[in-house]
């Protein structure tokens, strides 16, 4: 399939990163969100990120920021996706919201269009089941910050075809990224391991075993990690951490995935990490 125009649903942190990566690689992008305010904020942030990349990572930019931004068209109407050759969805980790989106875009998009589900934990097979094209639905788990991360977790649902995998892996290569294919399971590989680590680190803080700074400094100093688990949680967003743990807890029915009460309290208090300026640290 010749992919020229890519639809990106959701203009949050990951969605705008996906849109930026696609535009940097000369794809035309249809960036869709329910909020005009969110779209305006995303466009401003992408412009700022492109200017920073131009200053410090110029080798990643083949065109000037204005040209790249000119490839992104924003809107709040999903019907614009009738022009898309490929769709990457990045809405919140809420099954009811995701299901509504897929039921709608399945009627809007051409039958041959592939749907890439950007999810931390929702099973890809479940997403495919609400469409008439389950063989053309797969997981594309991008990491934050998307333009700077070279690897994407690609998830093969029960009915995902080899042709769909080839199409998605080819698109990722065009973005300068490697896709690693794993099988469908709640949390897949990255979050099945990472979320437990972050959650247990939160339990350590909750139980006053150590402070957040002490936990993170040990992971960086003892294991050579670039970031500690609580810094990583702040970067991802503590609401996303909670949603992912909840999906895995309900899917596996295993108590090891139960969210720490401190995590729930911080989310209730809107201490979500970098996106709100406060989490385990202040930004």
Strands, helices and their partners?
Blueprint: E1 5-9, H1 13-24, E2 28-32, H2 36-56, H3 65-69, E3 72-75, E4 86-89, H4 95-108, E5 114-117, H5 124-129, E6 137-141, E7 151-156, H6 162-174, E8 178-183, H7 190-206, H8 212-223, H9 229-236, H10 238-252, H11 261-268
Parallel strand pairs: 1-2, 1-4, 2-3, 4-5, 5-6, 7-8
Antiparallel strand pairs: 6-7
Helix pairs in contact: 1-2, 7-9, 7-10, 10-11
Question: Please, could you describe this protein's structure?
Answer:
This protein is of the alpha/beta class. The radius of gyration is 19 Å and the shape is globular. Helix 7 crosses helix 9. Helix 4 links the parallel strand 4 and strand 5.
Brief sketch in words of this structure:
Belongs to the 3-hydroxyacyl-CoA dehydrogenase family. Keywords: NAD, Oxidoreductase. This protein has 283 residues and is α/β, with parallel strands linked by helices.
Descriptive terms for the model:
Rossmann fold, N-(1-d-carboxylethyl)-l-norvaline Dehydrogenase, domain 2, eight-stranded mixed beta sheet, 11 helices, about 45% helix, about 15% strand, 6PGD_dom2, EC 1.1.1.157, NAD, 3HC_DH_C, 3-hydroxybutyryl-CoA dehydrogenase
